[in-house]
Amino acid sequence: MVTSQAGGGNDVQARAIARGLTEALGQQVIVDNRASGVIPGEIVAKATPNGYTLLFYNNALWTGPLLQKTPYDPVRDFAPVTTATVAPNILVVSNGLAVNSVQQLIALAKAKPGALNYASSGLGASNHLAAELFKYMAGVDIVRIGYKGASAGLNDVMAGQVQVMFPTAGSVIPLIKLERVKPLAVTSLERSRVAPDLPTIAESGLPGYESLAIYGVFAPAGTPKPIIERLNNEIVRVLASPDVKKLFFKLGMETVGGSPAQLAEKVRDEMNRLGKVIKAAGIKAQ
Fold first, then answer.
1. Is the CB of residue 42 less than 8 Å from the CB of residue 64?
2. pLDDT of residue 104
3. Which of 116, 137, 285 is nearest to 206 (CA)?
């Protein structure tokens, strides 16, 4: 089950994994497209834990419960299988803003609290929480302007109506190449192959800063360990394929793989770290 319409970024990733699993397991793996939100998680959490129902989802699976009550617990009700991909966001500013580095942006924001705006899409989206984490760690007041979609926010940054945004790398790199916006840094802890010429926010004035879109595969809690291990082995093999790596890279994603324990640890760490940010900012689903 994937939380994306057919042809969306999540869908492309899920279908590539499904094709690889179909070949490895000798039986058809079907991609079931559902709208994002709590329903896909609820369906998989309540599914029979036999390895036949899997969820391909991102950070929303574990940040959603930090914003609102959900019918599942992201730690208790799922068995992590593997991290599929990660994708950095990129801190960009409008071309007319007189800053050329993260430190200059922080200095300007501190000199003029509340004067700068940042664009984001839905509450809890990666471009939203990346910005709030930045504000939290830098101790600055930059006002959120919400949009129904990230593209509308980017349009206003390009027009100079909004000064700051943290869009996904895949969505903004074409605009950076066209010099429609000014990039300052990537949100990954280490420099990203997706945008190798950009420094990280962590190395540019906010040590320890990291905000990534993380895509993982989950099974219902209680799925037998041998099944989880088989799924993990086969999916990691798919992710290691040069063709899959190339496909995902074009989407602005870096393939990961890894163990179930590593994904479980990442989920717990993200919930703890971002929970503090969400509480401090008073963010709640509307």
1. no
2. 98
3. 137
- Integer angstrom CA distances of residue 5 from 32, 230, 253, 267, 280: 9, 28, 18, 24, 33
The pLDDT value recorded for residue 35 is: 79
Q: What is the pTM of this model?
A: 0.92
Domain ranges of the chain: 9-87+212-281, 90-204
Residue 237: CB partners within 8 Å, gap ≥ 6?
A: 20, 24
Choose the CATH number for 90-204 among 3.40.190.10, 3.40.50.80, 3.30.465.10, 3.40.50.2300.
3.40.190.10
Mean pLDDT, contiguous 10-residue spans, the chain (286 residues): 75 94 94 84 95 94 93 97 97 98 98 97 91 98 95 97 96 96 98 96 96 96 98 97 94 94 97 94 83
